Amino acid sequence: MKRFVLPLALGACVLWGGAPSAHALQILRWERLPLAVPLRIGEERVLFIDRNVRVGVPAEIADRLRVQSAGGAIYLKASEAIEPTRLQLQDADSGALILLDIAAEPAKDGQAPLEPVRIVEGEAPGPRYGARDRASGAAETEPPADATAPSTPEAASTARRETPIAVVLTRYAAQNLYAPLRTVEPVRGVTQATLRRGLDLDTLAPSLPVRVQPLAAWRMEDQWVTAVRLTNTSPRWVDLDPRTLLGDFVAATFQHPGLGPAGDPTDTTVLYLVTRGRGLANALLPRISRIDPAQNLPRAPGSEADAAPSPGDPHAK
Q1: Looking at the domain that runs over 23-121, which CATH code has it been given?
Q2: Which helix (H) or strand (E) holds 157?
Q3: Assuming Cys at both sites, which of 106, 122, 125, 169 could form a disulfide with 31, CB separation 3.0 to 4.6 Å?
């Protein structure tokens, strides 16, 4: 009986040795270069990405490629041959894109099943412009020797951020509205915020002959940016000045410095309003800023003369 022990043990080794090959995982690192993911007709391939993504499939292959997603995994299965085609995976939270180049061909005799794919991030932009992201595994520049170490994680996060959040949010919003989707730079921590429909913005710029319409909003930490469309309703050119806006804002930026006459291609622009601790709906009148920016507006000609008291004024001193 003992002579059968060794063959059985060897058989167990063969079985256990073969198991890992069935569960092999191909690692693809996203470094802003399209990732090649070949497919075979009738064979499903699984992509693990561990984030909530939307899959953009060209219409010409939609009837030949089945796409399903669940729990951070994407399942691709081609029913017919597919010529080389590019798919877009868009992060539902940050809007960041990952590009996949796929092609489906018939399986050949003796070919092993396709391995599942795990997509990991390469060197992505970090919270500091010009520096690498610590989460990507890239080393950051060491701080100066005389730098004081932050005492709390919150302070450390603030110390590492060289670009103000208001600037990051405004830039991100402008890219989403004016740049091609594939060029939008991913920013960690930025999420799309809920924007109340029918928000009344009549008190935002009462001195300007403009029609105001909210478009979209994003949030990062305790700050919000809301993109607002401005359309000139007058037949004259309108110069835009953020000091004329009413409300409690951290920053206000116009996409263009002015608006052309109504009906002209230049009669519309976008205003980016950054608020802290609340969305735009709770930053409008009667809430006002602690600093009145209108005090720095240039006075209209004759305004000082009109404000001066007359010699017979009993209030004159």
Answers
A1: 2.60.40.1080
A2: helix 153-160
A3: 122
DSSP state of 145: T
Q: CA angle 219-225-228, nearest 5°?
A: 140
pTM over 0.70: no
Give the separation between CA 219 and CA 187, rounded to whole angstroms: 11
Average pLDDT over residues 90-100: 86
The token pair at 162 is 């060289």
Task: Decide: 222 and 261 in contact? Cβ < 8 Å.
Answer: no
Cβ atoms of 102 and 76 closer than 8 Å: yes
Domain ranges of the chain: 23-121, 167-294
| Ramachandran bin of 168, using left for φ above 0, alpha for ψ from -120 to 50, beta for the remaining angles | alpha
CB 30 within 8 A of CB 121: yes
* DSSP secondary structure of 242-270: GGG--S--SEEEESSSEEPPTTSTTSEEE
∠ CA 184-185-190, rounded to 5°: 100
Q: Cα torsion for 253, 256, 257, 263, to the nearest 10°?
A: -130
Q: What is the largest CA-CA distance in the chain?
A: 128
H or E segment to which residue 98 belongs: strand 97-105
Long-range contacts of 151-154 (CB under 8 A, 24+ apart): none
pLDDT in tens, 166-203: 999 999 999 999 988 777 877 888 999 999 888 999 99
Task: Give 90's strand partners.
Answer: 54, 97
* Rounded Cα gap, residues 141 and 63, in angstroms: 49
The residues, ordered by sequence, that sit 6+ positions from 21 with a Cβ below 8 Å of its Cβ are 112
The helix (run of H) or strand (run of E) holding residue 13 is helix 5-22
> What is the token pair recorded at 307?
């404000």
Distance CA 300, CA 212 (A): 25
